[in-house]
Amino acid sequence: MLKLFRFLKPYWLSITGVLVLVFLQTICDLYLPTLMSDIINDGVIKGDTDEIMRIGGKMLLVTGAGVVFAIIASYLASKSSVGLGTILRNKVFNRVESFSLNEFDKLGTSTLITRTTNDINQVQMVTMMIMRMMVAAPMMCIGGIILAFNKDKPLTIVLGVAIPALILFIVIVAKKVIPLFKIIQSKLDKINLVLRESLTGIRVVRAFNRIEHERKRFQDANEDLTNTYITANRIMAFLFPAIMLIMNFTSIAILWFGGLRIDAGEMDLGALSAFVQYAMQIMFSILMFSMMFIMVPRAQAAAVRINEVLEVVPEINDPEEGAECGTTKGVVEFKDVSFSYHGAEQPALSNITFSAKPGEVTAIIGSTGSGKSTLVNLIPRFYDVDSGSVLVDGVDVREMTQECLRNKIGFVPQKSVLFSGTITDNIRYGKDDATEQEIRHAAEVAQAAQFISEMDGGYNHEISQGGTNVSGGQKQRLSIARALVRKPEIYVFDDSFSALDFKTDAKLRAALRGEIAEATVLIVSQRVATVLDADRIIVLNEGRIAGIGTHKELLNSCDVYREIVYSQLSEEEIA
Ligand code: ADP
Ligand code: MG
Q1: What is the average pLDDT score of the chain?
Q2: Is residue 266 domain-shared with residue 299, that is, in the same domain?
Q3: Which ranges of 98-155 does DSSP label H, i.e. alpha helix?
Q4: Is the domain of 176 the same as that of 258?
Q5: In the predicted model, what is the mean pLDDT of residues 517-524?
Q6: Which residues form ligand 1's pocket by a CB distance below 6 Å?
Q7: Are 343 and 424 members of one domain?
Q8: Does the pLDDT value for residue 569 go beyond 80?
Q9: What count of other Cβ atoms lies within 10 Å of the Cβ of residue 112?
Q10: How confident is the model at residue 410 (pLDDT cuts 50, 70, 90)?
Q11: Which range has highest mean pLDDT (172-186, 294-308, 378-392)?
């Protein structure tokens, strides 16, 4: 957790303030029992009303000052710990944004969410606690012991018995509770995972009548968490009454022995009442310590999880030296590229070599799992190759900045993703400063204008989270429009026409041809009709190139291609 505290730097002034104020407040607290003793000895016993008023006034003043210090300290402590939370959330978010897809594959989305929310909350809470107790607890404990000793030495023996007993008890409880609190964090992850899965997959859950199954899964995870919480809290619930009991027994013992000493004339009433209060303060400070002992390990577990995210070194980084962007326009070249996913036995791509030039359409066809998406994902450098190189405009993608590289590319992923917001917002995602005109034009080329105009509010129609209120084909066309509005040098369509009917598919490609004639176009598809008229077709099979050429050439030379074609087109169409 100490590592995370480096982010508290901007709040050093507030934190110093808290420490000083808590110091002052503790002095006030420690001073009060002494005043109490005076008011009893000099005022009450002697029946001196003036003295009572004088010391009473002093006590009021000290209490008032203590309250003011406490309030300001509390305010500053909240401000700094909440500030720490904000900074951490930003850091974690920014780091996650810079993750390559490999890192997402490794950590998983649910735990990233719990780490950004719940774990940071834990750290935030404990930071506040530490700030307020770090000074107060030891000071009150040591100050209390010294002052109590001053009031009456022999009575301190009672404390010598009570304090070790209390500490022993707290240690036993903490040993039991701390591991439980650590487990709770990972159980929260599990709940988050189940909840996310069943919410995003709600259609599948319904369609397959798996509501009961999902409910059971959630219930299990929930009960698991609940039971751990209950066990932990049962022990915690036991802690406080037990401590109160120890404290009360201590008071009784002090009053008992104090009474004997007063009888013997060795002690006065004021000293006894002050002593009781000091004893309470000492024990209360030990209680504060114990709270820290229990809460800090839990936050520590959370802090480790946060650090794990912050310490991930993204595999994909910008080169150190000034980035060359490449001058030629939109040439994509693969040179003997091989790539495997982390933990996969077989490489997803082997020895891929080809080039795609501006003004040409390069199509990639192959059965599912043949590596088409993997191949196009290497162009915007979502993953780094194992060997060989991917060149864009003659420069290795690892040697230019990601921003420069991705600015050249209009990418339409296989799974269309829309964000919550209007249709205009979604298309403008491709280009911040796109004018109304440009957005409309992109939508027209993408064959989206028609259905947009039929929607409530047209371009201002609200897309719901994840784009669930538009059809699959509409989603695809909106993602295409989003790529078109950028006017990039390179277009990548990863199976982006799959949800379109053949007529719309043909119309869209005809419109595209006019629109993006100058650019380099890569089209991934499983449909022969979509790739038929491409300048170059790359046939992929199990991560290897089975053939490159035009439709006619491949029909004569490539078995894999012929098989695909025969399975889709009739004899006359092929001729
Ligand atoms: P296509 O797009 O041609 O259907 P992909 O490129 O998506 O095929 O997948 C190629 C192979 O890589 C498949 O065998 C698939 O199981 C594997 N694969 C795809 N994505 C991942 C990933 N994130 N992690 C591990 N393996 C993956
Ligand atoms: Mg794919």
Answers
A1: 89
A2: yes
A3: 101-107, 109-114, 120-151
A4: yes
A5: 90
A6: 105, 341, 344, 348, 366, 368-374
A7: no
A8: no
A9: 21
A10: very high
A11: 378-392
